[in-house]
Amino acid sequence: MRILLFGASGYIGTEFINQFQNVNGIEVICVSSRRPDGSSYSYRELSRMIVDMSPTVIINCSAYVGGLSIINCENRKDMTIQSNIIFPQMLGEICNGSDIVFGHFSSGCIYNGYPDGGFKEADEPNFTFKSNNCSFYTGTKVLAEELLKDVPNKYIWRIRLPFDERNHPRNYLTKLMSFDTLVNCDNSISNRRELVRACLECIINGVPFGTYNLTNPGYIRAYEIVEMAKKILKLDKEFKYFEDSETFDEFRKIPTSNVILNTDKLASVGIKMTPVHDSVEWSLKNWK
Amino acid sequence: MRILLFGASGYIGTEFINQFQNVNGIEVICVSSRRPDGSSYSYRELSRMIVDMSPTVIINCSAYVGGLSIINCENRKDMTIQSNIIFPQMLGEICNGSDIVFGHFSSGCIYNGYPDGGFKEADEPNFTFKSNNCSFYTGTKVLAEELLKDVPNKYIWRIRLPFDERNHPRNYLTKLMSFDTLVNCDNSISNRRELVRACLECIINGVPFGTYNLTNPGYIRAYEIVEMAKKILKLDKEFKYFEDSETFDEFRKIPTSNVILNTDKLASVGIKMTPVHDSVEWSLKNWK
Q1: Angle value at C-alpha A75, between A74 and A80, nearest 5 degrees
Q2: How many CB atoms lie within 10 A of CB A223?
Q3: Hey, which end of chain B has fewer CB within 10 Å, N or C?
Q4: How far apart are CA B151 and CA A214, in angstroms?
Q5: How far is B227 from chain A (nearest CA, A)?
Q6: Mind giving me the DSSP string for A145-180?
């Protein structure tokens, strides 16, 4: 099986590399989503390049997330549209009508709120350009999903606030511990190592195509996480809290999603992620 | 010659229909840029549809301009991205590598300012998402041009503030006369009937592919236009003026381009538009 990996140097992409190295029968080719000079590929160029490499699977981990904060997407709209809409759309078109399986990362932040049991994959996103209530980043992720809806042989993996046990500026736990003020709402979050393993299981086990929420079962709030960090990591810091997301949005200056996702679909195809409190606790206990 | 016309019911599209009716040897097929239910075509659907109709030329007059004001594009980002970026990109990809000539409308508003002799077609746009100083509408028009840059067999026609002698809510002269407050800056503007004739001449005469500024030679300011209207149409109204565009932008709440475009390239291929003052005067004298 030959996998073409776009965005291999990013926070999610590097974890794919880590895990691929241990899987027999998989050859990984890391490809940049941009030309060597930083400009964007044309459709024909990208298509020719992909056909030449004849992959079995394309995984797109590339995205513009504004570096350390999606706030930066508001001021880099060209880059955000190009990376998060145009590029995945091109990949989708190339895979559509071919035998190539397409795996694309989306975000659980296309939802906001707490319906009974959490948002299911088939629920209509409610944090979108259409409803004019979302950040620019989130709006582009929704549009990409819409543009990919006719591609049959694809996985859309929705993740949220990735974290694991390695201290890293993109790690949600690292971020939380570095902030002074937190919003105290329940949220679904995704262990980076587990989510990547789940993607590989989707591909290797050939589970039905479609959209999957790849968040750890359950939900957790910032307060619980930093209290665990105080206990386990001896973190000596006091935090201030916004108790509602509206005040937090004003503080942050962009709309922020707070949401619980339903994880039954992933479980139903036999792929397990550990309950969120266990996963966070393990990460903090193995912090490095 | 078979021409596929997208956006035939719009302000520019209807004028194409008017003028096509008088041209022998041209068959025009009007096609909607959206499915009957208002949703967007997938690439494959659009591609199949176009191949079935085997056109010689595709003209894309469709765009989302926010109805009567581009201000509305700020709140309809999904529609704006879909119509102004994704759709023309798909058309470009379909034309690229085929014999179909592609004609696409862009906007002179991707520039702002007054360089010596006006902005030439090859000048880098300076009112863009990249420079983070433009309206959402303008940003999407720039991105579409970038995505079409590898399509060889295309015309990009840049127009500005279209007007003619027919009173119409999209007519720039109608708009100016309806406002109470105007910005008093020099601007290039485009007579709708002349710009459409210029497009047809590009196609029929087979002028070299590329980008053309389709504005009337010269420049004019709001003050001059309403003074002409007072004299010719006996318009009895006093206007207030913003003397600089910054104050106007604050008033309007989005960045507005004020710009002079260079029209030498169009003239160099033998296509004439009348000097802007003559064209405005003629329109007001024949106002209906």
Answers
A1: 70
A2: 15
A3: C
A4: 39
A5: 40
A6: HHHTTT-SSEEEEEE-S-B-SS--TT-HHHHHHH-S
Count Cβ neighbours within 10 Å for each residue of A65-75 and write b for 16 or more, e otherwise. bbeeebbbbbe
Per DSSP, the three-state class of A103 is: strand
> Hey, of B42, B47, B110, which one would you mutate to test binding to chain A, going by the most A CBs within 10 A of its CB?
B42
Contact between chains at A132 and B77 (C-beta distance less than 8 A): yes
What ipTM goes with this model?
0.82
What residue ranges define each of the domains in chain B, with the CATH number in brackets? 2-285 (3.40.50.720)
**Distance of alpha carbon B283 from the chain centroid:** 18
- Contact residues for A246 (Cβ-Cβ < 8 A; gap 6+): none
A61 touches chain B (CB under 8 A): no
User: For residue B24, what are the contacts with CB-CB under 8 A and spacing of at least 6?
Assistant: none
* Pairwise CA distance, residues A104 & A158, whole Å: 9
Give the number of C-alpha atoms closer than 13 A to the C-alpha of residue B244, restricted to the C-beta side. 3
- CB < 8 Å from A in window 91-110 of B: 93, 96-97
* A42 near B CB under 8 A: yes
> Please, where are the H alpha helices in chain B?
11-20, 43-53, 77-81, 87-95, 136-147, 172-178, 192-205, 222-232, 245-252, 264-268, 276-285
Chain B touched by A84 (CB under 8 Å): no
Indicate which of A39, A126, A147 best probes the interface with B, i.e. most B CBs within 10 Å of its own CB: A147
Tokens describing residue A66 = 């504004």
Chain Cα centroid distance, residue B171: 12
pTM here is: 0.89
**How far off is chain B from A235, nearest CA to CA, in Å?**
40
Beta-carbon contacts of residue A19 (< 8 Å; ≥ 6 apart): A193, A196, A197, A200
Closest-CA distance, A40 to chain B, in angstroms, reads 9
Which of A43, A82, A142 is facing B93, going by the closest CB pair? A43
Q: What single DSSP character describes residue A133?
A: -
Our CA dihedral for B1, B3, B9, B15, rounded to 10 degrees, sits at -50
Taking only the tens place, the pLDDT of each residue in B65-121 is 998 889 999 999 999 999 999 999 999 999 998 999 999 999 999 999 999 999 999
pLDDT tens sequence across A159-202: 999 999 999 999 999 999 999 999 989 999 999 999 999 999 99
Q: How far apart are the first and last CA of chain B?
A: 33
State whether residue A243 sits within 8 Å of chain B by CB: no
Closest CB from A44, A77, A89 relative to B150:
A44
Our CA-based measurement puts residue A140 at a distance from the nearest CA of chain B, in whole angstroms, of 8
Low-confidence ranges of chain A (pLDDT < 70): none
Answer for the pair B217, B241: CB distance below 8 angstroms, yes or no: no
Residues of chain B contacting A89 with CB distance shorter than 8 Å = 43, 86
The band of B226, judged by pLDDT with boundaries at 50, 70 and 90, is very high
Show residues of chain A in contact with B48, CB under 8 Å: none
